[in-house]
Amino acid sequence: MAAAERIYGAKDAPPEHRWKFRYLIVRDHTHRVVAATVFTTLLTKDDMLAAEDVSREIERRREADRYYLSSTVVMTGSTLSEGNHLYLDRTGPWREALRLILAAADEESERAGADAIMLRDLPDGDPEIDTFMLDEGFSRVPILDTHTLTLDAPDESAWYSALDNKKRYQLRRVIEHAKDTEVSFHGVGLAPLTDEEAIYLHGLFEQLEQKKFRINLFDLPMTLLPGMLTSPAWELGVVRIRAEAGGPPQPVGFWAAHKCGDTYAPFLLGVDDAYRDRDIYRVTILHWVRRACALSMRKVRMGMDAEVEKNRFGARAERIFMYLRTRDDYAGALLGEAVAKVATNQQIHQGAD
To answer: Which residues form the BioF2-like acetyltransferase domain (predicted)?
Structure first.
C-alpha cells in the first residue's frame, strides 16, 4: 500500500490519480483484532463493470466530456488491487465491528461527497454476511469471476502432468512458442528498469486495454510501473522474442505481479498485438506459472476476465460479489439510457441482417 500511496498521492495529478487512503482496525476489549480493512476514496467510471457494448457507447460520449458518468467512490481496496480486503474474526463480535467499519465509511463518504460505498470481491456462499449487508442498506452485485491456479507442488512438470488431455493438447503450441522467448525480471534486488523501458511497457498495456472494456478503468499514471518497483512486494516480468528466433529488440509483452507469502498475483498485462501469431498472450501466462514455480509459490492469482484462456492453464473460477450503496440514481438513469441505446442499435443491426 505504501507504493500505491506514493503513486496516487501527488496533489497536482489529475482527479482520477488523486486517491485518499484510510486504514481501519477494530479491536475487542482484550485488544484482539476483530475487523480490519483499507478504504480508498477515488474517482471511478460508473460503467466500470458494465457490458462491453455499453462501455463503448459511454466512451464515445466521453470524447466530449472526459468525466462523463464518473463518480467518487469509497471502496475497500482500490482499482490497483483484487481480492477480499475485509478481515473479520467471526469468533468475535464481528457484527458490531463491521458496523463500526461501515460507520467510518459513511463518515469518509460524507467528507468526500462520495456517490457510493463499495465493499469489493467478497466470496460467494456467506449468507450471514449477505443478510447483514442487505439489512444495512447495501445491494449485492455479482461481478466477474476471479481465477486461481493452485500448484500442488511448485514444479512445472507436475503442474503440466496434472492437466487433463485436452488442456495439455491446447498448451503444446504455447510451450513450443515459449522456447523462442526469454524473460527478464525487474524490481527491488532484480534488474533495474530505465525510464524509456517503463514508457514502452506502459504503451503495451494501453494497447491491450484499449481493445477491451469488460473492466473499464481510467488510464493508469505514467508513474505506476516505476512506482511499483520501489516496493519489494512487486516485480515486472518482461518478455522478449530471442533475436535468433526473429524477434525485435524491444519487448513484446510484460506483466506486473504482487508477491505475498505463497501467492503470486499478476495484476497488469501488456502484449504487442503485432506478434499474435507467436501466442504472446498465452506465452506470458505460461511464464506466470513458471515464475511462481521458480519462487516456490503454491498459488497464482490470475484475476478477472479472460476466463477461457486462464482455464486452459488449470485455473479455477471463483464467484465473487460486491456490496454497493449509492447516494442517488442520477448516474444510474444515464447508464440505463446508454444501455437502452445499445440494445436499440443491436436490434436495428439484427433487423438489417
So the answer is: 166-310
